[in-house]
Amino acid sequence: MTQNHYDVIIIGGGVSGSALFYELGRYTDIKKICLLEKYDSLASLNSNGSANSQTIHCGDIETNYTLEKAAKVKKTAKMVEKYCLKHGYEDKVIFSHQKLALGVGREEVIYIKNRFEEFKSLYPYLELYDKEKLAEIEPAVIYDKDGNERPEDIVGMGAQGEYTTVDFKALSDTFIDNTLKIQDKVTDIFFNNEVTQIQKIGTTYHVQTTMTQFTADFVVVDAGAHSLYLAHQMGHGLDYGCLPMAGSFYMSNKQILNGKVYMVQNPKLPFAALHGDPDILVNGFTRFGPTALMLPKLERFKPGTYLDFFKTLRLDHNVIKIFVDLLSDSEIRNYVMKNFLFEVPYINKKLFLQDAHKIVPSLNEEDISYAKGFGGVRPQILDKKNQKLMLGEASIDTGEGIIFNMTPSPGATSCLGNAVRDVEAICEYLGFTFDKKTFNDELVDEEPIEGENT
Length: 454
Hints:
The structure is a single chain. By secondary structure, the protein is α+β, with helices and mostly antiparallel strands. It has two domains: 5-98 and 161-443, FAD/NAD(P)-binding domain, CATH 3.50.50.60; 99-160, no CATH class. It contains twelve helices and 22 strands. The chain has helices at 15-27, 67-86, 106-119, 131-137, 168-180, 226-233, 306-313, 317-327, 330-341, 348-356, 415-430, 436-443; strands at residues 5-11, 32-36, 94-96, 99-104, 127-129, 154-159, 163-166, 186-190, 195-201, 204-209, 213-221, 240-246, 250-252, 260-263, 275-278, 286-289, 293-294, 368-370, 377-383, 388-389, 394-397, 402-406. Helix 1 runs parallel beside helix 5 (168-180) and helix 2 crosses helix 11. The protein is globular, with a radius of gyration of 22 Å. The model is unreliable at 448-454 (pLDDT under 50).
């Protein structure tokens, strides 16, 4: 074997790749693990704190989650929380803020009250807030610029004292730091190594980068939108296309909200509703967003990747049919146009305030500015076979020793849960042992992962 041969190579040093690196090092007997990152540091794209809302999406206030999805997401979110508490990362990596989903107007109030009844057994800490209580804990959502109480019916469903916020770049750093402390294993990381080609020759994968070549018995690609790009190069996932959705934000010049305030999701829209969050990287000032804008590139604020986008979109009649179906709905069409205008100077703030007033009725143009350099790109997957836009995470496990993961929100929240899925697949394929007992003891808050040690 060559000097650059490993049992497992992970491509991508965001929070997903870093979590897998940690789990392979901590909970398996795999001896040689390698992580390849195209840039000069970890988590420089979507896992960076400026590219996401820094939220642990556990399903309690995300109104686009069904009860079934919420239960699944809650379990993986608790893994992140338990990991951080085990290592003493409170107020360094993980933070506590109050949080709530806000219902404004009669229909939304009824919806929030019904949802509270449905979800309170899964989240016993949830509380229902009337207007008086909201005025106490989040006064900015109740009073207008003249100090008058807003006239609409309003209710909130939320919690206080829960861990709500994570610096996912800092989390990625801890995964790597804790893995490098493990003795008697090779745990190598190579920065500035962009993968240009993956080939399988016999049972071995040859991974060519801009710097050198590596080989491995198993490869996991955690490279965001480029995961599908690399899959297509190898002939996998050809029924999928990638629609990169960029999210932008507006930043306040002060702390306006005390915690996270989410709005009721429009079920027709496949993208997150506007919310306000305390930004842990900017003095706790309130960040509003995200907007949703389709960009013809796979990476935000990085040069190039336009051609990569067109190759990964794989435009054909199925993709056109998906676009036509989406834009035939007037609500979606208006949403797409409005989000485009949110990027246009001079008119963007005025338009954005129309939506943001639903959360903070007193907000004015002087309070916020377009957050330059904030936001990321999420790879929404187009299912060409079924002619629809896929929501949530997507993974292509070829069964041939290579896995491609595309992880839009809540990919960061689910990083440890997604990693354990891949750990089990790797160990089964290569014949290594996964120590499920230790994993469950250290990371699983509720019922353990099924099965015994393998």
